[in-house]
Amino acid sequence: MKKNKKMLIGCSIIFVATIVLLIGATTKASGSELTLQEIIQEPHKFQGRFIMTQGDLIEKSIQWDADLIQLSFKIEDEFGNVLTVVHQGVKPDNFSEDVIVIVEGFIHDDGIFTAEKVQTKCPSKYEGEEYDPELHEKEIE
Amino acid sequence: MHNIGVLTIYLGLAISIYSFIAFIVGVIKQDQKWVNSGKNGVLTLFLLTSLTIVLLLYVLATSQFQFKYVSMYTSSDLPIVYKLSALWAGNAGSLLLWTFLLTMYTTMVAFSNKMKGNPMVPYISTIMLGNAIFFYFILATTTRPFELNDFIPSEGNGLNPMLQDPGMIIHPITLYLGYVGLAVPFAFAIAALILKNVDSFWIRMTRRWTLLAWLFLTLGNLLGGYWAYLELGWGGYWAWDPVENASFMPWLTVTAFLHSVMIQERKGMLKVWNLSLIILSYALTLFGTFLVRSGVLTSVHAFGDTNLGTYFLIFMGIAVIFAMYVMMSRYHLLKKDSDHFESFFSKESSFLINNLILVCAAFAVFWGTIFPLISEAVRGTKVTVGVPFFNTVMSPILLSLLFILAICPLIAWQKSTIKNLQKNFLIPALLTIIVAILLFIMGIRTIYPIIGFTLVAFMLFTHISEIFRGVKARSSVTLENYPIALIRLISKNRRRYGGYTVHFGIALIAIGIIGSQNFSVESMKTVAIGEKINIADFEITYENLAQKSEGLNDIIFAELKVQKNGKHVGYIQPEKIFYSNWQQPSTEVGMISSWQEDLYIVISAWERDLRATFVVRVNPLVKWIWTGGVVVVIGTLFAIWGGRQNQVIPRYRGTVRKVT
């Protein structure tokens, strides 16, 4: 029985250590997942906080500066809230009209969101479009 | 075609319900006729599901766009192999595949030779049929594979280019095989409990099932990582995305289970623990599916929002409550029959610690994954923890796991004395210290990689010395020379040495992960033709940008000359592929891979004056991860197949019933 007790103590130590680790890491590394609505309405409230949000891409708004390697674009939700995003990095794949874009980063005074990470939502849900040779030409040029 | 398809599904639902009831009636009445009828039902169900799946494959292959599923995920110009693999591109098809595998496994168990005359069979079949009913219910009501379009489109949407990759052909199916495979040990465990059998029969009987399921889970995870690495072009292989976590959690708990059952087999301990682990693992497969299909979490994967997730959650709830109820009602029997630990310093206890760490790891992943949901419930905002959280938490946990992995083979069963410990540990420990010093001399100064690599070295040394001691002992008895002794030793103890081989594989994977997580460098640059990019020891010259066609696809590619330390190493051609009916191009990573590092280049954009933007990464040691994966597969297969150990049919000593 004494041996079992010893085991129990050993196990509890591992368990407690994990919990401590978890709590420590949770408070340190947290960001908030917000809707566009929440961000647009009260941008000041979330300043300095690491934010994750998502919205539909407005293709026309995409601007790409090759020399600065800077991408900027706008995303919107179904209520018409629009957020401008600036990202020091390149376009992810599948970056086209109406694709859901997930961005992670910070919101600033001027309402512009600087994204550290830009992702498009994965394949499984997408629907394709008709083949359009002209479109290819356009993209290729 | 549509009518037949729909009919097979309704029929499947009916037969699964019928067989489920037939087994229960047979057990209650103790009437073999009913049980046999149930078994025939199981076989019929399997044939029927096969027919359904063949039908769906047929309409996919022949591009019958009147079916929604076909027009959603394929187009007529798609290569046939991707038309077929669209079977698991969407909800309906993938759940049909799941059902197919489930009925296949149920048939294999119900008609198994080893289980002939065993009273557990009707119970196991009933439990697995309970699963089948659930899946058929969903196929008949929510995600109907044979749903028709309102009007027939002339062309389908096509498969997303990202999915047009060999990864698509094998990665999903391996994961499903792993997920479904866990239903078998779960059903065995619950059946044993219902019959009040508290011995290890169910564990011995399902050892290979569980190993196979574990192998597929491992493969699924690794292939997913490999695919992401090559296809997505962000330079990583693991992102702690909810969907990845969903398949990683059961992997962790099943790994724990595979180890702790050894203690039960040998010592009759940890019975409740093992049962809990298998219930947990099984529940996690359903929970993972819930996460993926419900859209409650923000993930780059996700199958879209249907109420499918809710169904999975409810089903998981029912299954877990039922399993827990059965277990608690047999708790006194399990407790009475369990042994205790004989020594603090024994193999048993080191296994238990390994188990605890694995379960803690699973819990940590679980916590990080569902934290957004918890925080939303408690505080109203979804708080995400992100990659840093997982890295902070998982690094120490996985490192301590490596440590346990290193000392485990050297600790004897029951009780280790200080003396034999010293004997076993001395040489590996000395060698490990030398490695640590070498790492330091090589210029590694950060703490995690030093600890990590050192632990991996320690683990490799202890395993090698353990094998060496085995060889020496055998050779001194049989007088065989060392190589022959080694071969015979290994082939006579497939379980043990298969397991050690898996450990070697894990060591290689660990080397790759530690290397790539700590030492990768990235550079993004826009350059004109003739200009150079310098990164780490590489000098990359952008030579040309050109276009070519492959079938309906147009490909833009850049030619880059690569020099390392002034020496020419080759050319890299990163591409963007414009798929026929897809407006946006897909990335095709260009890479030169060596044992030392991967030079990983993505062409991300180009301008009218042919300037192009490249993302260049040097990822050290990534190749070790994939190599380690291969070693893990070899080790597992070695432990599963052949050898006398695997032929032994465990003796059934449990409750006897009239119906089997």
Quick recap of the structure?
Chain A has 141 residues and is an alpha/beta fold. Chain A is 29% helix and 34% strand.
Question: Could you say what the CATH architecture of the largest domain in chain A is?
Answer: Beta Barrel
| Radius of gyration of chain B, in angstroms, nearest whole number | 27 Å
Given the structure, what is the number of helices of chain A?
3
Q: Can you list the strand order of the major beta sheet of chain A?
A: 2-3-4-6-5
User: What percentage of residues of chain B falls in helices of 4 or more residues?
Assistant: 55-70%
Q: Using the alpha-carbon principal axes, give the shape of chain B.
A: globular
* Main beta sheet strand tally, sense and closure of chain A: 5 strands, mixed, barrel
Structural class designation of chain A: alpha/beta
Distance between the termini of chain B: 39 Å
The Cα radius of gyration of chain A reads: 22 Å
Low-confidence residue ranges of chain B = none
Q: Quick check: average pLDDT of chain A?
A: 80
> What percentage of residues of chain A falls in helices of 4 or more residues?
25-40%
